[in-house]
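re: that complex we talked abt at group meeting.

here r the seqs, copy pasted straight from the sheet so there may be weird spacing, ignore it
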Amino acid sequence: MQKSIEVGCNLSYEVRQSTVFLFQISCALTPHQVVDSESLILNPNLATEAFSAGIEANRMHRVVVEPCELNVSYRGNITLTPEIDEPGEVNEASTAHMPPEVLTYLNPSRYCESDLLGRFAFEEFGHLYRGYSRVQAVCNWVCEHLDYTPGSTNSSTTATAVLLQRAGVCRDYAHLAITLCRGLGIPARYVAGYAVNLQPPDFHGFMEAFLGDRWYLFDPTRLSLVSGLVRIGAGRDAADVAIATLNGDARLLDQQVWASDVTDPAAGGGAAPESGISTA
Amino acid sequence: MQKSIEVGCNLSYEVRQSTVFLFQISCALTPHQVVDSESLILNPNLATEAFSAGIEANRMHRVVVEPCELNVSYRGNITLTPEIDEPGEVNEASTAHMPPEVLTYLNPSRYCESDLLGRFAFEEFGHLYRGYSRVQAVCNWVCEHLDYTPGSTNSSTTATAVLLQRAGVCRDYAHLAITLCRGLGIPARYVAGYAVNLQPPDFHGFMEAFLGDRWYLFDPTRLSLVSGLVRIGAGRDAADVAIATLNGDARLLDQQVWASDVTDPAAGGGAAPESGISTA
Amino acid sequence: MQKSIEVGCNLSYEVRQSTVFLFQISCALTPHQVVDSESLILNPNLATEAFSAGIEANRMHRVVVEPCELNVSYRGNITLTPEIDEPGEVNEASTAHMPPEVLTYLNPSRYCESDLLGRFAFEEFGHLYRGYSRVQAVCNWVCEHLDYTPGSTNSSTTATAVLLQRAGVCRDYAHLAITLCRGLGIPARYVAGYAVNLQPPDFHGFMEAFLGDRWYLFDPTRLSLVSGLVRIGAGRDAADVAIATLNGDARLLDQQVWASDVTDPAAGGGAAPESGISTA
Amino acid sequence: MQKSIEVGCNLSYEVRQSTVFLFQISCALTPHQVVDSESLILNPNLATEAFSAGIEANRMHRVVVEPCELNVSYRGNITLTPEIDEPGEVNEASTAHMPPEVLTYLNPSRYCESDLLGRFAFEEFGHLYRGYSRVQAVCNWVCEHLDYTPGSTNSSTTATAVLLQRAGVCRDYAHLAITLCRGLGIPARYVAGYAVNLQPPDFHGFMEAFLGDRWYLFDPTRLSLVSGLVRIGAGRDAADVAIATLNGDARLLDQQVWASDVTDPAAGGGAAPESGISTA
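got the structure back, here u go
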């Protein structure tokens, strides 16, 4: 089940003072997500410094920009070859045997205060069978109890606030689902990326839970097909995977984002399953 | 300026059900902190799994314990050879040139909501000279505005709560200083460790700020000499460096912690400086 | 359905500096709650200033005490003659016709942030029939979703925190039920009082909701019989009805509280109903 | 020192469903604030129910409006004859002797969590002389540490949030000053009103502190002359004095507010003092 996906974005900024930009818009490189070709073009034509950083080696580009109108354009052609498992056969991992690098995703983080929601999580989901289906139940609960309401949250909104106000956007849905999973003892992390046919088009935020021996993708908003998610980077929460971090004085003027499935129908055949998908 | 330090701890637990323990009590290994010898003994004599994990490769030991009374005893002989710089010559680093792996320490974290305190930090410290002395000013402010009050905070207390209530313990002092530094654009991280002659004896929490091209140690509580700090591990905040994480059902019965400077006076000579110290 | 109830308390304090005490321990006077006799005795024998204050004219006693050991003893013999209505016939009042003095109990207050929980309340209870039974449903939800856990909260804990952590004591149960009612547009207020046979004996905190044209009593903890609740005072939340407010330096040494039903069985006959009860 | 002030407002709403409006836009009646004439006109010409409610007997108008475009117009001609005292002679009142009805204004309220800021208040202002000048110092501190930033806060923002983010509007300035006063043991309350020559024209929020034996006016924003403040109502915080409370479905289309000093210069003479002013 292989997919070819074209993604991209155009960002333009009014840069008023010398500003350091840190972009996370390039697609991640994993065994299951191959970047066949990509380009990152700045206008004016400035040299960017590319590196990978953080616990997940997220790809970043850093550039210092003097006052101007800056246009940033990224295009990528991606081949996804996800691992696909039968959800009913995927159990939760035990902290006794979990890979060490996964343990950090049990800790609370800025937007995912799992230390505050452990009792809540156990009360709602503690009685459920311990496996893929329990994470799915968490995501269903989040989707059914929140209203998708642009403008209802801001960059400081945390999972507990979202749980109380029962409204948010994709980032908030992911944060709440992550927090509840961690509260249950299931490692969970935030993923930023592109999503095929997302309406309205935008960057997307979703999540992964560690089950069995790998990370599985979930989108608690149900706004995307999980089989059409292209990863930019992962982290403990949105603080780790900001699309653009600015240090200086600049203003976003315009943003366009897209992602399309361009799989050759002859090669594919049939719809992809939408659960049990791993691309990490 | 070399120091020999003996550190150790005894922890005993009543384990009531099968419990997974994750200990972070072993001393870190860095070019400036050499572990000459160490031992970790469990009674009953259980095999532990040792590994390094997380962005800072903190050393951890994992063990699954069935119901019993568990005693854990760690001893280490450490040689510290800190890098010591003249504080007046240490400037802040620019985000344009900072090493990529440092950037994550500008992000807010669970107990350090730097996104909420940027304006506060700039108002109090924005006018100061940008260098080591500014971090020192932050630490002084924290020390002078907080009361060291055991019991005033708990494991969910964040830097903003500490700032409002003006009381806390070492962990809270460190969290607030870290948060204010990040608010100023200075990378800062939490360090857990042993502190020579700490009164009352306990594990200690302090911080590092990234200045120039390295991490410098600060203790906003002023309860320890910075030259006598022995690192266990570092992370974004205390969530990353818990001394013991338990999954199961166990209760701490007793805890003893110690750290002594056993430097041969013939070899040393004179007191160590207390600023401009790096051991990362 | 008349009841005779004996209530009382003994409080003793170590007063270390001149301290102003404000006590709210005397029973309220309402058409349905008659104080047949009462006494308030201080040892040393100090004169207290008695007055009624606040929107509900709560009874208070003020006294200035110099350093000493202070004993305060209150005893009251109360006759309750509640209004008792058939719950099924009690509807919610409309804001268009509510008595003006009731409107303030729709506002958020310190411990009842109803502005934050309106959406939550509507999602959980918005579809229910609008009447006494809806408030009962709120109280049931609170009782079923919280664990009664002494020590889990403190004097700064608010309804939203209780909702997240799912634990609290009587005061917290009342705050959460009040907050959810206000979120639904139902005026609700906090009542402090004595409760017959409360185990363990203590002062009690419960609530009233305004329905139809009067205030009805509810105890979301289910620890007391509503027919055995004796009112001290009411207010927006516990901030308005503190048993003792101290300004100075004193420490509570001991506290005893009691309340017994001493109704002459010959006069009574049969158990009181436990719903539809008004004593305001 | 008498002043004649003309105040007024026009409010228009698109009413989409039957909506209950509760307006607090009429000027308060006090010994020092006489309403010489006033009018409240609704278009369509609906009958309003006028009453006074709450602890401060704030004047309110209630009206039920069916779908339409509603225009509400209030005009008042006010004579202010403030009590004016020499600030240096006004001391703080003792809780031992304060009038009972004032005590409630020492309690924390929804937007003024004085229980959380007592230590902060004492640290910053505890050493100051206990009198009018201390409240002035609190107001000065608030003015100097906050940025007046429309849009930086919303209807759920509390004093602690304002203190951390160091930005707000008039309501937030008043909340923070009130909270700090209560933290110091000084009764303080919120006042909504009209302010002569306020720029940009709007309703205004300010505060009163109880000193000596009366309430004194303060405006921590310094945007108005205290001598030109016309009171609508007072309460524990903004939750008690909302200009308009809506229950139904309506949208504010337009709002105009004004207040002008029309004192006959022949009668007056000279500028009014701007401190030590009471109009309660």
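couple things i noticed - The radius of gyration of chain C is 19 Å. The first strand of chain C starts at residue 3 and ends at 23.
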